[in-house]
Amino acid sequence: METVHRMSYRKTLKLICGFAGGSAVLVFAAAAADSRGYFGEQRGEAASRWPKFTVLRAAQPAWTPAKHTPAPTGHAWDFNWDKRDPSVLSNGKKKESATEDPSSEQDNGKPKATRNILLIRHSQYNLSGNSDKERILTPLGREQAELTGQRLAALGLKYDVLIHSSMARATETAHIISKHLPGVDLVSCDLLREGAPIEPVPPVTHWKPDAVYHEDGARIEAAFRRYIHRADPKQKEDSYEIIVCHANVIRYFVCRALQFPPEGWLRMGLNNGSITWLTIRPSGRVALRTLGDAGFMPPDKLTRT
Hints:
By secondary structure, the chain is an alpha/beta fold. The chain has a domain at 115-301: Rossmann fold, CATH 3.40.50.1240. Helices cover 37% and strands 12% of the residues. The protein has helices spanning 2-20, 23-35, 46-58, 86-89, 102-108, 139-154, 168-178, 210-227, 247-257; strands at 115-121, 161-165, 186-189, 239-245, 275-280, 286-293. Strand 5 and strand 6 (286-293) form a beta hairpin. The chain is globular.
């Protein structure tokens, strides 16, 4: 009878461990088995039981809150990352006047609005084109742009401007999207063209545009400084701006805005027509609301070319 109980318990123990997959469950079950004498000892043989249980306990890592609390890494948040922090921007050149209140002047120079920047990756395009003009959207790419435009319209936001890269695939994507956003101005910008912003880490062996990192990187960084920053103090209401550009540009922007190492830009992937949403608070805080959101597209419409 005792043998039957042991076999039954071992089967139960094996089943539990199989489902849980955790060593903590094993220790708990072993302790219960040991207390019932299922390891072959009688209940009174406490001295011989504990060494076996101690071996199982020794296999478990010691847990203390201090050892399992992640330690901060990297640098502290730089609130003047965009060089627009009012307390630093003045550079000690505050007006000294008996008729002016310095505190009031400083308050008037503080941003009060939040900027929302929606970065859109262009839709699927013709990869076999020999020049930029030939790399136009595919039929599927035009469908994707329509879906992105519908999604942006459905959000019900008051968009201030739609800026796009001057490359053919981004320009065409922007024009299709704009049909769903009547009254929103279209602006083309060469700074937003695709390129290699910085040598990625870890490196890739199949793609090493060493000669263009210097040129492209400076241009894309210039685009970041032009478009990604806190609101001007004169801006009274929150703004919503759309930028249609390219995967490399968007990924670099995200890393820079979040103060992540910019060389990590290639670790992220973005679907065609996806939406990446950055929010920049008046204080200089930045939040990533969405990264490469394409959930509004049917699965058979998703691509990443």
